[in-house]
Amino acid sequence: MNPHRKIGDVILQAEAISLSFGGVKALSNISLEVREHEILSIIGPNGAGKSSMLNVINGVYHPQQGHVVYRGKTRERMRPHEAARQGIARTFQNIALFKGMSVLDNIMTGRNLKMRANFIQQALYWGRAQREEIAQRAYVEKIIDFLEIQHIRKTPVGRLPYGLQKRVELARALAAEPSMLLLDEPMAGMNVEEKQDMCRFILDVNDEFGTTIVLIEHDMGVVMDISDRIVVLDYGKKIGDGSPDEIRVNPDVIAAYLGGSH
Amino acid sequence: MFYRESGQFKSSYAADSAIFTIAQDRVFIAALLALSFVAVPGLASDYLLSGILIPFLILSLAALGLNILTGYAGQLSLGSAAFMAVGAFATYNFMIRIPGMPLLLALFLGGLCAALVGVAFGLPSLRIKGFYLAVATLAAQFFIEWVFTKFSWFSNDSSSGVISAPAMQIFGYPIDTPASKYLLTLAIVAFMALAAKNMARASIGRAWMAVRDMDVAAEVIGIRMLRTKLLAFAISSFYCGVAGALYAFVLLGTVDAQAFDLHRSFQILFMIIIGGVGSILGSFLGAAFIVLLPICLNLLGQVFHGAISTQFLANLEMMLFGGLIIFFLIVEPHGLARLWQIAKEKLRVWPFPH
């Protein structure tokens, strides 16, 4: 861990979030805070509500109760594309790449928010449209270098192995220059080497770009190693919140993972 | 052997994102354009121009329109012919009701009307997808056909609901010979095909494909569904509308709403399935295929003079289309355009196997 990295103030607060689908309570009364520049992990058994929590943060789901305060502003029913505009990017548990497009086009799509040319300029490929296309391509190439995927630039994403697809998805999220990055199981289904690569990239992103990272992961070794703070969910309730060392000895967490009386 | 790119290095992002990155392709397309603009109008017979090339170009334009919507943005539509009808009738009304209306402006405004109608019928796409959306666009098909038959105002109160092309001219040049009609169509189609290709490789094209491939992820990276889908409907309908107006005025001369029935919509859908979904080139290949197949079958009929009845030939055409569509959907969902691409890949290394 880089000792010079400074964890800042709270930038996102989820306050008493409750979310249910019909009779199923996915989240009940959950509050959590995310501080600037930190790596926060959300862990918990399957069905604990981890992905639902990410979906609430970036506006895919709207909680029935509670609200999210992001950079001092309380959000009412925000759409995901508005979250993207405010600098929140994410990757998905099941890879959500654009299958019919090349790696380059996928990452370029992540830059769409930065493009201002209207469709007439684009149809003529003239003036601003052309300038933007080239300028954004230069930035995308930096991301491609950063994540070491130069060799597959023009390959359709559907042809890539799983580990590389995950990396391309991270690249697409990074292309938007997010200030907060939500990663939903970025290392699921990877072998040890791929996991090490992914850990290195996550730490590098956090270190070089200062991106705040909220991470869902099942590999406890990874979580304990790279997190600044961990939030533990079980059955839609928060049962733990603290540093890796605190979580390791938290009796509720141990009970949830190893079994015990509820 | 000849189609090899070794030694062609790209030293800028502009060169790398050009439409034709290989020099041989650039030479080929330049030669093709020169041939079609200069040699064909002078050399081709009137039958070749009005019977084959003009319908091919116009239907390519309609297929291009549907390909933007279905191939790029992933919104299935069975209403292409209806949007063609809107373009045709709107252009007609602009021409006869506003004296001195320039032809190109009337075509543009006709396309714009089709775009507006397209947006209106595209609104359900925000809620429904796939087959259900196809049914919603089917409603556009029947509704618009009915409107143009029912309200005679659109056909200038002609008793039979038929509209006839007024005399056309551009900057004083009359458009009355097959060659001049061909050149007008070719110029419009070439320009609009270039525009479609440009959109497909720029941010709007990527937004369409993102919505097509994974809509939740598209929204999460900041693409606005409403805007992106409706823009696809608008631009697609604009292309269909211009194609419809050209079909009515340049190809047929007189036309009624039945020329734009469901059969026509299916014909355009077949073009993009056979030609290649999500490919500009595919729109042209599919249109060429569908225009040429009946002509080839007719020639076949003449060869076997009397042995094959015309009725059988007509049925044979339907059977061939049906068979080919099933073939392409199963074996090569990306159509002739993909086959062409594979052929080019092979040609790059020919005569060696790798």
Automatic annotation (TrEMBL), chain A:
Pfam families tied to this protein: ABC_tran, BCA_ABC_TP_C
Recorded superkingdom: Bacteria
Gene3D superfamilies: P-loop containing nucleotide triphosphate hydrolases
Start and end residues of each ABC transporter domain: 12-260
Keyword terms, alphabetized: ATP-binding, Cell membrane, Membrane, Nucleotide-binding, Transport
InterPro entries with a match to the protein in the record: AAA+_ATPase, ABC_AA/LPS_Transport, ABC_transporter-like_ATP-bd, BCA_ABC_TP_C, P-loop_NTPase
GO molecular function, one term: ATP binding
Name under which the protein is recorded: ABC transporter ATP-binding protein
UniProtKB/TrEMBL annotation, chain B:
Its membrane topology: Multi-pass membrane protein
Regions that span the bilayer: 27-44, 50-69, 76-95, 101-123, 130-148, 182-200, 230-255, 267-300, 312-331
Superkingdom field: Bacteria
Matches recorded under CDD domains: TM_PBP1_LivM_like (cd06581)
Pfam families found in the cross-reference section: BPD_transp_2
First-listed, main subcellular location of the protein, grouped into a coarse class: membrane
Cited InterPro entries: ABC_transp_permease (IPR001851), LivM-like (IPR043428)
Alphabetical keyword list: Cell membrane, Membrane, Transmembrane, Transmembrane helix
Protein localization: Cell membrane
Stored PANTHER family: ABC TRANSPORTER PERMEASE PROTEIN, HIGH-AFFINITY BRANCHED-CHAIN AMINO ACID TRANSPORT SYSTEM PERMEASE
Protein name: Branched-chain amino acid ABC transporter permease
